Amino acid sequence: MTTSPQQPLPPIAISMGDPAGIGPEMALAAWALSASADLPPFFVVGSRAVLAAAAMARGLHIPIVAIAAPDEAAAVFETALPVIDLGDLAYTPGEPDDAGAAMALRALELATGLVRNGAASALVTGPVAKSRLARVGFSHPGQTEFVAHACGIAPENAVMMLAGPSLRVVPVTVHVALHSVAGLLTAALIENRAAITAAALQRDFGVANPRLAVAGLNPHAGEEGRMGHEDGDVIVPAVAALRAAGIDATGPLPADTMFHVQARATYDVAICMYHDQALIPIKALDFDEGVNVTLGLPIIRTSPDHGTAFNIAGTGTARPGATIAAIRMAGECAARRAANPLPGTMPDATA
Fold first, then answer.
1. Of 49, 165, 251, 320, which shows the fewest CB atoms inside 10 Å?
2. Given phi > 0 = left and psi -120 to 50 = alpha, else beta, which region is 25?
3. pLDDT average, residue stretch 180-203
4. What span, in angstroms and rounded, lies between the C-alpha atoms of 217 and 314?
5. Rounded distance, CA 335 to CA 22, Å?
């Protein structure tokens, strides 16, 4: 399926996530606020019965209409939440089980496939419980790795970026123990993550000349070897190689002075060496609007930067800001790709 920049984009696909978590109610709340938030049309892949029960629990009076295919969503979206219904399931907020995990996996698989074949313009994934997914045959570390595999992309070429109104961050290493980070860092790994990030900022975020601030690993960026050798031996050569390739990269920079307001004005993304170095500042600054974006894919994939929140599911207290931000960002990135396709991907003018 091809779409010219002049044609309306296909709707965005949202996988429901674990039905016992806050994913269903966040999708509902996002639809309820879609007009005021100026969101593009979207549809949910999941259980209509779960969504209806979640709406009742949250006190939302939302029409929910089953659709057979994404191209039916636009006609429904203004008056009802469109859903590709995967079947009935009991709504048990805060009580995850294997049946719910299996539903979440089916939703993820189908939603990813619909974006891959062009029936949907972008993918927004609802939060899942990875341990529960593993019980029903999910073999990937997380949804990011699943989507990368489905797209034929090697895991090392799928880069996680967390983005909010105040900050963008990329962790070079992600879900590994802190004591393992130094041994995993290489100049090639940093270069690869940073180069993919720079290209994605240009293509999907409209940043013509991305400025990358590369954090040091050790306190004071190693202080010339007094506090560790990794900054000089690994990060310095990586930054030099990025600059030689024409990428505006600086570093290694002391991480403790990178995230105040004046420092953030000097760069477009912070390349961080490990998980918490990246996620603590963005969650401190943009907790309710943080978006997880997977860079380096042939499709657009975002997700709210929070988990299943089983402890508050069904209580009506979860805030939909991150889901709304993820949908909005997915739509903006998809529109930029449609307006500026890569060479060889222009739609056939004679079609």
1. 165
2. alpha
3. 97
4. 41
5. 28
Nearest alpha carbon to residue 108 among 19, 31, 170, 8? 19
Domain with 105, as residue range(s), is 1-156+297-351
User: Per-residue pLDDT for 271 more than 90?
Assistant: yes
Q: Is residue 348 very low, low, confident or very high in pLDDT (cuts 50, 70, 90)? A: very low
Two tokens, residue 1: 């399926």
pLDDT at 250 over 60: yes
Residue 235 maps to which CATH number?
3.40.718.10
DSSP at 11: P
Domain count, the chain: 2
User: How confident is the model over 116-174, as pLDDT tens digits?
Assistant: 999 999 999 999 999 999 999 999 988 999 999 999 999 889 999 999 999 999 999 99
Question: Helix axis angle, 187-205 relative to 236-244, nearest 10°?
Answer: 40
**What does the alpha-carbon distance between residue 253 and residue 313 come to, in Å, rounded to a whole number?**
40
Has residue 343 got a pLDDT over 80? Answer: no
DSSP category for residue 94: T
pTM listed for this prediction: 0.92
**Of 217, 210, 211, residue with least CA distance to 252:** 217
Give start and end residues of each alpha helix (H) in the chain.
23-32, 34-37, 48-58, 73-77, 98-116, 130-135, 143-150, 178-184, 187-205, 230, 236-244, 261-264, 275-286, 321-339
What is the distance between the alpha carbons of residues 200 and 210, in angstroms, rounded to a whole number? 9
Q: Do residues 78 and 208 both lie within one domain?
A: no
Q: With the C-alpha atoms ordered 204, 207, 211, 213, is the resulting torsion angle positive or negative? A: negative
Structure tokens at 302: 């975002």
- Pair 272, 251 in one domain: yes
Give yes or no: residues 61 and 88 share one domain. Answer: yes
Domain limit, last residue, from 289, 307, 338? 289
Same domain? 36 vs 138: yes
